[in-house]
Amino acid sequence: MLLLIALRQAGRLAAPAAGPAPAIPARLAQYWDSGAPPAEIAVLVQGWRAAHPGHAHVLFDDATARVFLQAHCAPEVLAAYRRAREPAQKADIFRLAWLFAEGGWYADADDRCLAPLDSLAPAGAGLVLYQEEYGTIGNNLIGAAPQHPVIGLALELAVAAINRGDADILWFSTGPGLLTRALARVIAGSPLGLSAWLRRLRVLTRVEMQRAVGMHCQVAYKNTERHWSRTAFAHRRRRAGAEAA
Description:
single chain; alpha/beta; Spore Coat Polysaccharide Biosynthesis Protein SpsA, Chain A; two-stranded antiparallel sheet; 8 strands; 48% helix; Glycosyltransferase_domain; transferase; GlycoTrfase_DXD_sugar-bd_CS; mannosyltransferase activity
């Protein structure tokens, strides 16, 4: 996190120069685990589809995600997906697996599209992320070229954590905390040199992101046990109570 804050302060995360051709395929994936989403989510999903007529848009659910993972990923990826405790953690695993295999854009189903995604990235960018106010990297919108090393490392770490049975909350194990660690590790270990690597990376500020995406819309399911924050912290409270007893 400190590395990414330092790069931002030094101006090294500014937009790279446009390349000769788009590196991120014109594909857009979203995920809602239980088949047909509720009406308010369906409206948001349709907004993404309407704003991107030139993109192949797919809304995956639990069943179609399993089919994709079985066809395109190593067995341990599907095993981790099956073991994931919450729908949000399944979505975290799936987005990384889909992006690594196919490339394209992934957007959370509870975010609102305000402008086409192509407005966020120069043509040559191989990875598009956004930096949260804490300096961490959000994972609700990601654009990536196929087989991108940051996405690959994040997927590897997430799968290993779940299959080991790690008890970290989702934010650390498969969410923004994980993606932040993966990005920092790849940047620090790249043999290309920092400048060469950063030329293919676009890390948006929160202000830049909000011009195209209305994030974390207040939809009804967030007030139920379906939302990861309620179930994750409830599990930790129950575990702490059991250990105290």
